[in-house]
Structure formats: C-alpha cells, structure tokens
Amino acid sequence: MRTVGVVLAGGVGQRVGLNTPKQLLKIAGRTILEHTIGLFDAHPDVDEVVVLMTPGFTDHVEQIVARNGFTKVTKILEGGASRTESTWRALQAIDGECDVLLHDAVRPLVEPRIIAACVAALKNYQAVDVAIPSSDTIVVAVPGPEGEILRDIPDRSRLRRGQTPQCFRLSVIRDAYTRAFADPAFEAATDDCGIMLRYRPDVPIYIVPGSEHNMKVTHPVDVYIADKLFQLASNAAPIPPSYDLQGKTMVVFGGSYGIGADIVELAKGYGATVRSYSRSQNGIRVQDYDAVRDALDQARAETGRIDYVVNTAAVLHMGLLGETGHETIDETVAVNYLGPVNIARAAHRHLAQTRGALLLYTSSSYTRGRARYSLYSSTKAAVVNLTQALADEWADSGIRVNCVNPERTATPMRLRAFGDEPAGTLLSSADVARTSIDVLLSNLTGQVIDVRLTG
C-alpha cells in the first residue's frame, strides 16, 4: 500500500495580517511551505506528495519544487474555498487505493517520528489522528446577556488537542466525504477526523501522540515562536547517498588545525580539491576583506570552480567584559563576526556559479549568553542570524547556507581557554568535521545543525 502525503496550503494569512498565503512566509531561511513539503519529500515512508495551494499561487509551488529538487511531488492543485473543498479535490485527484496523510502546510515542525508512527498505525487502522494532551483547562461557554458564561468544565484528563497529519485509507475517507456532501445539514468542516467520526462512526480512529512543537502558524505571534523553535531545534544532517567529491573544489578558512584541518583531510579523502587558508598557515586573516577576496579568486583561478566555502576561524577570549581591553574586543568582533561577513560577501559570486554551499559555525552558547565570554557567545548568536538571512537572500541563486552548532569540542582554541577537561566529556573535532561534510552535501539551507556527544 503506497503512502501519499497531502500538503493542504489553500489558506490566506488574514489572521497573520497578510493578503498573501501565510505558507509563503519565510522562517529559518525557507518558506513555511518549503519546510513542510521537504519533510514529506524526504521521509522514507512517503511515496508521493500532493500539494493543494491557494488559487493564483500554484506557480510559486512549482518554483519551490524545482528549486529544492523535490522528487516526490506528483501533483500541484489549486485549493478550494474551504478546507473541506481543498481536501476533497485532493482525494479526487489521487489515483488507486492508498493511504493518505492530510497535513496542514502551516505545521512546518511536524517530526519525522510522527509521520512514521502514522504510516505504521495505518497498517492496523483505517483512520488515524495526531493529538496531544491538553495542558490547559478547557471550558464550555454559552452566550449570556452581556457576553459569554461558563457552562461546563470537561475532565481534562480525557481531552486532547488535535494536530495533523490526519491519516486514512483513501477509499474510507472518500466514502465519508461522499456521505457528508449528500447530507443537506452538512457544513464545511475544518477537521477530517470529525467528518469520519460523524459519517463513518463504524471506523475506529487511532490516536498517534503528537508534539508541542507541531504547532500551527495561525497568528502573528506564531511566526516568531516557530522561527525560534527552528533556531533551537536539534537538527541532524541527513546521510548523503555518496561522498564522491571528485571534480569539486572546497575552500576552508581556518583550516590549519582543529575542525578546519579535519574537514580539509576528509574532503581530500573524498576526492575534492581543497584550498586551506588561515593566519598561521599563509597569513590570511578573515577580518581582512581584500585578503579573503584574493584568496577565493586565487582558488577559483587555480581550480576553475568553487563549490563549497567553509569558515571555522574563530577566537575565544575569557574574562569579564568590563575588564576587557579594546584590542581584545576588536579582535573578537572582527574574527568571529566580520570574518563570516567578509567570507560570505567574497564567496557569493563563486558559489552562485556552481549553486554551491557556505558553511559557518556557531556555539552552543548562542542561545543564551554566558558569563566571562559574553563577546564570544554574542558574536556566535549573530552568525546564526546571518546564516538564516543569507539563506533567504541567496535562495534564488541556489546557494545553500547552513550553520553547524557543535557541543563542547576538543580543539586547541578550547584547550587554551579552559585547560584540560575530563576525557569523554568533549566531542572530537573529527566528529564535527564528518557532520560538516554531511551538511555540505545535503539540500539543507538556513538550518542550525547540532552535533552532540553521544554514548
């Protein structure tokens, strides 16, 4: 039984304060719709993807599919005037018996685990919902003379908050809709399981546990919450189908030791032509734009192309800000923030020619400033923001921009700052380098990829 993911993107963002579809808002470097389609397109349990889009905007979806290389999208259809009509159009357009996963396009944070659980549940059930326990008390209100009056408080232990995907055997949900349309009292619904419950009560609906992160972007504040959740998400780089880098050129700034040196060796081992630049290796300082530009131009002239640019250069000075001298402040800001800016500016024209990738690095301290290295943590937070902004700016050029966020890593820089630390408490720089290669070879963009110590 094949599985078809249906992405329902037929709405307009009126509650978000927009006249255009809210699913085209950009979060973490990509539109909401790109994130959502990408989740289903990349999921091993999903065979096809059908997208229902707001009338007049299907060309946007076609561009998104082409730009991202989504291979499972088989149909892009105009949605209807209501959620019910959009769903019915999708159900009619799908050929042959199959399992369908109906998902709100504006839930871009659905976890692959949820999709897998839904597909598995459909082996034993013909209808599956996704829901989470209600942490709030739910009250039943009725109209009163001057507003609403509380009538009842249901037992919260039995209440669940519905999410998507809502999943069905195609013939069963089609039958429920056919019965609904034949009912003169039927009104457009916003919940497919509600239609199933009303018109096919003989079919039990299994509940898959959802996630608090699987939120729906509905109101203006949701945009900011979703963006922060993407920023804080523990993302893992997909394993590439091949590590063959023959014919590719990689430029690494900060490649003389630590993570950068390991990336250089890995990339060479995979067949790439690699150019490494650093202050100690060949006098290239990332805070010097002209030097960075000339280094990239030299690499392009020598190799004929630049496919990947990596920046691992950074400095870490410990101490209280009030006791830090001007030279230390200038160096930290120049290397840790101006450096990535310079590299991005100089690399753009080269990467646009190859539709390549830029990889930057942050620190686990970017989510919350740390005492005694406030400059380091704040500049690393700025790099995350830069990553997301550039991913947005460079999307039309086909350039992918991502940021690796390693936990505490055994590098010479950390050793100088913190001294010896217990064995087994730090990542190896080789582990971070391997993840870095995975990210460079992926289709990800605008993402912060965590590398964590396991075992």
Structural descriptors:
455 residues, alpha/beta, seven-stranded mixed beta sheet, elongated
Short recap of the structure:
The protein has helices at residues 32-42, 58-68, 83-93, 112-121, 170-181, 192-199, 220-232, 258-269, 279-282, 289-303, 326-354, 374-393, 412-418, 429-440; strands at residues 3-9, 26-27, 30-31, 48-53, 73-78, 99-104, 127-133, 140-144, 147-152, 160-169, 206-209, 249-253, 273-277, 308-311, 357-361, 400-406, 409-410, 427-428, 448-451. The chain has 455 residues and is of the alpha/beta class.
Q: Estimate percent helicity.
A: 25-40%
Derived from helix and strand composition plus strand pairing, the structural class reads: alpha/beta
Average per-residue pLDDT, rounded, comes to: 91
Q: Going across the biggest sheet, name each strand in turn.
A: 5-4-1-6-10-7-11
Based on Cα principal axes, name the global outline.
Answer: elongated
- Number of helical stretches of at least 4 residues: 14
Largest sheet: 7 strands, mixed
Low-confidence stretches: none
Strand content: 15-25%
Distance between the termini: 37 Å
Architecture blueprint of SSEs:
Elements (H helix, E strand, L loop, with lengths): L2 E7 L16 E2 L2 E2 H11 L5 E6 L4 H11 L4 E6 L4 H11 L5 E6 L7 H10 L5 E7 L6 E5 L2 E6 L7 E10 H12 L10 H8 L6 E4 L10 H13 L16 E5 L4 H12 L3 E5 L1 H4 L6 H15 L4 E4 L14 H29 L2 E5 L12 H20 L6 E7 L2 E2 L1 H7 L8 E2 H12 L7 E4 L4
Parallel strand pairs: 1-4, 1-6, 4-5, 7-11, 12-13, 12-14, 14-15, 15-16, 16-19, 17-18
Antiparallel strand pairs: 2-3, 6-10, 7-10, 8-9
Helix pairs in contact: 5-6, 8-14, 10-11, 11-12
